Amino acid sequence: MQNELKQTKKRVFSGTRATGRLHLGNYLGAVKGYIELQNREDLECIYMAVDLHTITTPYDQKTLKQATRDIIMDYLAAGLDPEKSIITVQSLVPEHVYLAYLFSSVVSVAQMSHLPTFKDKVKQHPDNVTMALLNYPVLMAADILLYNTNLVPAGLDQEPHLEIAREIARKFNTRFGTNFPLPKRFETKGTYVPSLTGEGKMSKSVSGSSIELMDDLDTIKKKLAKVPTDGGRGEKVPATGGVANLLKMVELFQGEAKRQEAETAYVNNGLRYGDLKASLAEAIFAELQPIQARRKELEKNPDYVERVITDGARKAREIAKATLTEIMEKVGLSS
Ligand code: TRP
Q: Is 49 in contact with 27 (CB distance < 8 Å)?
């Protein structure tokens, strides 16, 4: 591993785009996995609010900084621990951008423009097809490889981006004699949190689809009330749609046995959605309540949050600078 004679542990990197607060999908799909990894002795974890990625789509410069703090506070409230993980904001480590630039010299424009994630964004924001957007996966590869990362906890939707990161790593290793590991995606148990609309996954960009980390019991109840259901009885439990999604949530928050119980009711005497939704709401809220309490404490303590970010940036830069210096040498630049 380059310049990492001291590196004894495998590295983990992941980032969250600062486009608003975390919801239940992010929490179960990503942050719970982060916590699982940070508690392993054999791993060194780095988690960032990736604000440089945020500016690849339209954003508000007046609220971006607060949005990054919100991500960090949600991380901390959910249980990420700055004693165990490096927690910071991407733009405080400018080496990410530098390495992304070097990487961009081995990536073709055609390949980037054919990625489904790029095409989706072009559709969403046809007036904002920028170089930064095209370069999104390259910057993400830099985020990951700058730390010689082995594991990336992220959703399945990020797999194409990870493939790009591996491709860049291979190209650099072959062409310049670097020694980047090929990063793998780390799948967490609850990765797929379904949408309340009954279609697809819980997402920030689909209104009415998500439960926010800060929702109170009443709000959760109201949101669950809107999940579309059926008569509650039939020969077969639906595999898609609102009922299927509700049952998935039951499994995630109340366990497999509870789900079985509900399925049995569906094919026998009938399932009462009122009761099911009420107990599901309680179960979700029970999981969120301690996070909400810690979040409120953090809001009263902005100095602490800034200290976490500054310390994290210092530690991250130490690693980042070492990698970058070595890469610059190998690429033939003056470092
Ligand atoms: N693209 C990721 C997302 O949209 C965010 C991200 C940026 C990321 N850099 C990363 C995730 C590095 C994992 C590792 O969710």
A: no
